[in-house]
Amino acid sequence: MKKKLLVGSIVTLSLVLSACGGKQKETSQSQKSEEISQKIAISTPAPISTLDTTQTTDKNTFTMVQHLFEGLTRFDKDTQPVPGVAEKIDVSEDGKSYTFKIRKDAKWSDGTKITAHDFEYSWKKLIDPKTQGPNAYLLDSVVNSLAVRNGEKSVEEVGFKATSDDEFQVALEHAQPSFLSVLAIGWLAPQSEEFVKKTGDKYGTNSDSILYNGAFVLNDWNGTSDTWKLEKNEAYWDQKEVKLKEISVQTLKEENTGINLFESQELDLVRISGQNVAQYKDLEGYISYSDVANSFLDFNKKEGTPAGNVNLRKAISLAIDKEALTSSVLADGSKPLNGLVPANLYQNAETKEDYRKYAGEFGVYDLKEAQKYWTEAKKELGNKLELKLLAADTDQGKKVSEYLQNQLEQNLEGLKINVNLQPSNNVNQSRKDKDYELSLSGWIAGSSELDSYFNLYADKSSYNYGNFKNEDYTKLVTEAKTKHAADGNKQFEDYKKAEEILLNKEAAQVPIYQSASNYLVNPKIKNAEYPLYGGYFFLRNAEVVN
């Protein structure tokens, strides 16, 4: 079965899902035939980083967050926002004022009531410069929110507040059609101020130092463990619709290990790629869909370092044959990407034109032009140069980094690439610490806003690890998400000009490919969802059937 899904922000990692009905999941022979165990197991390539929703960045952790917490809205199976903790939502005619009515039966996992104050607290924590999270930009459309996170105004002047235990009000600077979708992202989930302060520095560091309000609660995670369990949250307001009782999770980096376990009927959902796609594509239970995750090279452009040289960056950006990578190395449906934003993700609300088609291509493979820039770079940096390439030690990370190493050393004579493979969480931390020269990374939209991608290189963005600065880029991106937020044509033009600065003029990033997702799935698992934005998958409505 082939289907096209748009998946949604965040640093991407490949995932493998595993088992329902393995030996430990078998029901007793004495049970009635109609009784089915609602226990499954899944596997991820990296452990959880933190469960403080204001601080999560990697896609693996974010997938867990979406199961454990719920915001004012949540996504349905079509990735459309529907009421979550808020049972009623009123929007003003000008689209700038929102009033949310909190459900009376919305509770924390300890049975205490969730209030509007829990949202006010967590949102202030997200944008306050003292505690600011990397995704605070999601609230930039709120009155004074950007000024607060830039330290220009007090957090008490922000345009959201709890008017009572049951009512939460939000005022926007400009109408934002996608605002309710943004609220479904786990980064904007509530937090109990009393519990956070009581827990102190331990908050979010293990499964006992968190209160949950989503479909599941977490158990058996000590902060560094490679295994944990998601168990049904009996205090969840809509728990009657949650069928799964338990999801066991383990870290599993090697794809072939997952395939072997699938073939031995110990796993029932496993992600595959490369040659495995060709081998298993005719097997019953194989599914494939194009997602919107992008993989790219990012430079640490610190002045005075080799990667700070624009001619070197331009040479590298044009020296990679992306078609050969996707067709021969990945061979899993991934496609070359010559732009910051993937195809088939964002449409102009007026013209329905896809942004990628509108903006065109940047950094298309051109060996002759690459070598011209390389000649100029050598005049400035010397005839021989070494760069360290930071990449995740996953199957995909190994294959892609080795291909890039061969391409660059072959096409740019005198350039040596030393590949540094690290666990995914270590890669993310090294990037945050700006401790890298060249890194292989990825991103997938966390919301239905184009700004999710352009924010990566915003002047004060927490994700601007590579020290990119350009006043024209900043001005264009700011106007696109504020002044032109409700004008699709002007917004697209702003972003196109910004993308041209980023990728052509500055070569601050090298887009490589837009990935595809391929799975082998036991048909007993039904209603697993693959959302437009956010996590890899969502199992709130999943169940095991005969």
Summarize the structure in words.
The protein is α+β, with helices and mostly antiparallel strands and 546 residues long. It has a domain at 46-251: Dipeptide-binding Protein, Domain 1 (Dipeptide-binding Protein, domain 1), CATH 3.90.76. It is 27% helix and 20% strand. It has 16 helices and 19 strands. It has helices spanning 59-68, 116-127, 145-149, 179-182, 193-199, 255-263, 275-280, 310-318, 322-330, 355-359, 367-381, 395-411, 424-432, 451-454, 471-481, 488-505, and strands spanning 39-44, 73-75, 81-83, 86-91, 97-102, 160-162, 167-171, 216-219, 227-232, 246-251, 269-272, 286-299, 335-336, 385-392, 415-422, 438-443, 509-521, 525-526, 543-544. Strands 11, 12, 13, 14, 15, 16 and 17 form a seven-stranded mixed β-sheet that branches. Strand 6 and strand 7 form a beta hairpin. Helix 8 (310-318) runs antiparallel to helix 11 and helix 15 (471-481) packs antiparallel against helix 16. The relative contact order is 0.18. It holds the Pfam family SBP_bac_5. Keywords: Peptide transport, Protein transport, Signal, Transport. Belongs to the bacterial solute-binding protein 5 family.
